[in-house]
Design brief:
The chain is mostly helical. It is built from five helices and no strands. It is elongated and about 55 Å long.
């Protein structure tokens, strides 16, 4: 049984098999979620905060990506402290 399980794991990790596995799907959705959150945070400013908040709540699963959201907000606040008040407003919502 262990050998069969190892063979299945190897098949799932082999990029040349062209199989779509649940691991690949999960990784793809995670990367999409990460791109969505990071892109939204990068576009935030005073004039775009309201539509971007609506967009973020509609497009992103914030329960699943709450760590990504916090990480992106912290990185944004560190890189541009002038926008810290906008990030705080997003967190307050």
């Amino acid at each position: 049984q262990q050998q069969q399980q190892q063979q299945k794991d190897e098949d799932n990790n082999d990029p040349q098999t062209n199989k779509v596995t649940p691991i690949h799907i999960q990784r793809q959705t995670w990367e999409t979620l990460q791109r969505t959150i990071n892109g939204t945070i990068n576009r935030l400013n005073v004039t775009t905060i309201k539509p971007l908040i609506h967009s973020l709540f509609q497009k992103a699963n914030l329960i699943r990506g709450r760590g990504l959201l916090v990480k992106s907000l912290l990185n944004g606040a560190i890189s541009s402290p002038n926008y810290a008040h906008i990030y705080v407003a997003l967190i307050a919502v």
